[in-house]
Model the fold of this input.
Amino acid sequence: ENVSHSLCSLEFENHRPLYDWLLDHLPIEHKPRQIEFARLNITYTVLSKRFLKELVERGLVDGWDDPRMPTLRGMRRRGFTPNSIRNFCSRIGLARTHSTVELSWLEDELRKDLNPIALRRMAVLDPLKVVIENIAGGEALACQADNNPEDPDAGTREIFLTREVWIEREDFREEANRKFFRLKTDGLVRLRYGYVIHCHGVVKDSNGNILELRCTYNPETGSGKTPEGMAKVKGIIHWVSARDAVPATVRLYDALFTKPNPMADGDGGDFWDHLNPEARVDLENCQLEAALGQAQEGESYQFERMGYFVLDPSSDGEGKLVFNRSVSLRDQRAKSE
Done:
């Protein structure tokens, strides 16, 4: 059948004499060469089909295509590109010594593959309303945003700053130290691709929870400009127009296990104890830039300051949008360790 090499894992090494004997007695011109290699192990997951099957049968994942699963179907749904997987395989190579490869290597290859091609969009995952009081109710200020700063040919898109916008709740603090450069009471921050705003009021409910912020914008600060006599504003945050935003569910995926080697305690009977309860976190009512309402299945985007995301097949195209986080912008796991 014109097979040049037979690649298999190390447990088949003892079968090679029988394999070679059979080849010697077959009427073939070219004899395939058998090469054995160690099985691949990756931190924070398991690759044994037996244990993966048990995850599915116990209902601990949603199936073989669950984005938490290290299957090709699961990785594709998560947003891993074929090129990132091939580059990962080239990076680790073949070895006869049993070893465990860092999950961060696989994630790093995905970042490197997506960074030059993924379109940039803004998405607010934990929305806090900001009312810009010196913008009229029907007014909309056009701003030009880069589609991908790594690719000049990707061009720009037009987004609109309106009276009400959404920002990330964590981007505001009522009280903050000098190292906090995002928005705070009586503080300044620049809205990405837009203007500098000043927060002068906080609206709360009867329990003290923040409902919205009252701000004004400086008309002379568009397109990154800093007026003469004004100190440069260091903080830049992303935002979404409340008028144009599309609601969505965003699923934040992480490693399947909390322990780098979940099988290290024995034969794997208790590796369930190390399942990561936050391997999937669903965020409802996220507010996304209007352009994401036209996203197609399999298209990858960088949500600015958030990570790389892909549209999930469960999105029905009738207002129900679900995005999966493929990978964060940086290796957060290494930072926490």
The CA atoms of residues 67 and 78 lie 5 Å apart.
